[in-house]
Specification:
By secondary structure, the protein is an alpha/beta fold. It folds into 2 domains: about 190 residues, Serine Threonine Protein Phosphatase 5, Tetratricopeptide repeat, CATH 1.25.40.10; about 220 residues, Collagenase (Catalytic Domain) (3-Layer(aba) Sandwich). The chain is built from 18 helices and 6 strands. Strands 1-5-6-4-2-3 form a 6-stranded mixed beta sheet. Helix 4 links the parallel strand 2 and strand 3. The radius of gyration is 21 Å and the shape is globular. It starts with a strand and ends in a 5-residue tail after the last helix.
């Protein structure tokens, strides 16, 4: 389930853009004026998986044999044979285009036999419903996927039916993705990527993997090279529905050696097979969902304490540092800056850390702009722009471009600054939902500049 967290979007010394929950437009007509991800970003250029095959095998087992709630899944499950997908409900204007692009990627990169149909039954149904309707039944969700049901009405009639329990599934016959009908184009696209991929593959999310959409930090917004490799492994003929965890584990080394020869050997990073403590997850989710900044900071500090006690040096420590900085009170600007610098260094040393690091460097650049360090703003944003482009994150890319524009203006390069602001507009509309939201983001970033 992709979660909608409550974030304030004003940029301040330590409160920067919202990578997890872009603003939603007031109505569907906004999307009709937006541009698709294909038109904005061109051909997909996902970052290749950087983890070793030994790590990926461990990750697949952790993703595939446990639910986000912590419950264990006893056996391997998947669809068998060709898969069809149908869109229904209040279909947003760009949903068909984004879906076709996603399925084309799945056919090309994951070698899946999947296509969209417009009528009749389908193994996967994506139904678009208003966010307010969705959250009355599933509070906090921006989208989710369920087994053995094909419509919102059927789910609403029996939301606790045993058939909807993924733990009970062996052979996947049908799945329902519930997606927002009235979100930004980016959020709608993000939901399609994560939830359709979970309908086809593993169901868990892991905070310790930075190079996947199956991570509730939501830094990755479209399917990565790691994700496509996992889906390809999941559908390898050597695996069969009903296999136990140990049976799958025995087959993974040979499958990965065949599909990902570049992952042979060890990249020097230690394997960590232990599940993340629930106390840390609860602290993170509490920080992200709290309505008051003081509460968010307290819970982020709790998560940071747990991460330090566990001795982590991975994405979980980095994300704890990031949130502690994001929600730090105004009087702790130096400590927040240090936390962001530590998070940036940690992400930089992790496989697939370029995209999470780009989010952290956005915050560092906002602080640099406030301090009048324009050259540093340019260096930080330049290093983050390519990961933002390759992960097709319009909200992140627009914010980086707007920060650069302010720095350029501060250095007297007025024409270059204004050109960059114009170029940022379509990415901002894609990510934040409307021209007004794009203008608001521009104003927030402009207010940071030290004159």
């Amino acid at each position: 389930m992709r979660v909608a967290f409550a974030f304030g979007c004003l940029l301040s010394l330590v409160a920067c853009s919202a990578p997890i929950a872009p603003r939603a437009p007031a109505d569907l007509s906004v999307q009709s004026r937006a541009i698709s991800s294909a038109a904005l970003f061109g051909p997909p250029r996902p970052l290749a998986p950087e983890r070793s095959n030994a790590q990926i095998a461990q990750d697949i087992l952790a993703l595939g044999f446990r639910l986000e709630s912590g419950r264990e899944i006893p056996v391997f499950s998947r669809f068998e044979g060709p898969v069809t997908l149908r869109l229904t409900g209040q279909i947003p204007p760009l949903a068909v285009i984004e879906t076709e692009r996603l399925l084309a990627r799945m056919r090309t990169e994951a070698r899946l036999d999947i296509r969209r149909v417009t009528t009749g039954p389908a193994q996967i149904v994506v139904e678009f419903v208003p966010q307010s309707t969705m959250q009355r039944l599933v509070p906090g969700a921006s989208c989710f996927v369920l087994p053995n049901v094909s419509s919102w009405d059927a789910f609403r009639a029996a939301p606790r039916a045993r058939a909807l329990d993924w733990v009970e599934v062996v052979q996947r016959e049908k799945a329902l993705v519930i997606a927002p009908a009235d979100s930004t184009v980016q959020e709608m696209r993000d939901c399609l990527h994560e939830e359709v991929a979970q309908a086809l593959g593993p169901l868990n999310d892991l905070y310790r993997i930075g190079e996947t959409v199956w991570n509730d930090d939501n830094f990755q917004t479209s399917l990565t090279g790691f994700d496509m490799l996992v889906l390809r492994v999941w559908h390898h003929p050597a695996l069969q529905p009903g296999m136990r965890r140990d049976e799958v584990a025995a087959r993974l080394p040979a499958i990965l050696a065949e599909l990902n020869p570049r992952g042979a050997g060890n990249n020097g990073l230690p394997l960590d097979p232990t599940p993340t403590p629930r106390a840390w997850v609860d602290a993170i989710e509490g920080a992200l969902s709290a309505s008051h900044r003081r509460t968010s900071f307290r819970r982020a500090q709790s998560a940071l304490s747990i991460a330090a006690a566990q001795g982590w040096q991975d994405e979980r420590l980095a994300f704890s540092l990031f949130l502690a900085a994001r929600f730090a009170p105004p009087g702790q600007g130096i400590a927040a800056l240090d936390a962001l610098a530590q998070a940036s260094a940690l992400y930089g040393a992790r496989p697939g850390g370029a995209v999470p690091r780009a989010h952290v460097n956005l915050h560092l650049a906002a602080q640099a702009l406030g301090a009048g360090q324009n050259a540093l703003v340019l260096r930080l944003t330049q290093s983050a722009i390519e990961p933002a482009q390759r992960s097709e994150n319009g909200a992140l890319l627009a914010s980086l471009m707007l920060l650069r524009a302010e720095a350029l203006e501060g250095m007297g390069q007025l024409a270059e600054a204004e050109s960059l602001r114009r170029d940022a507009v379509p990415f901002a509309i894609f990510g934040f939902g409307s021209q007004q939201a794009a203008d608001d983001r521009r104003s927030e970033i402009a207010a940071l500049r030290s004159d």
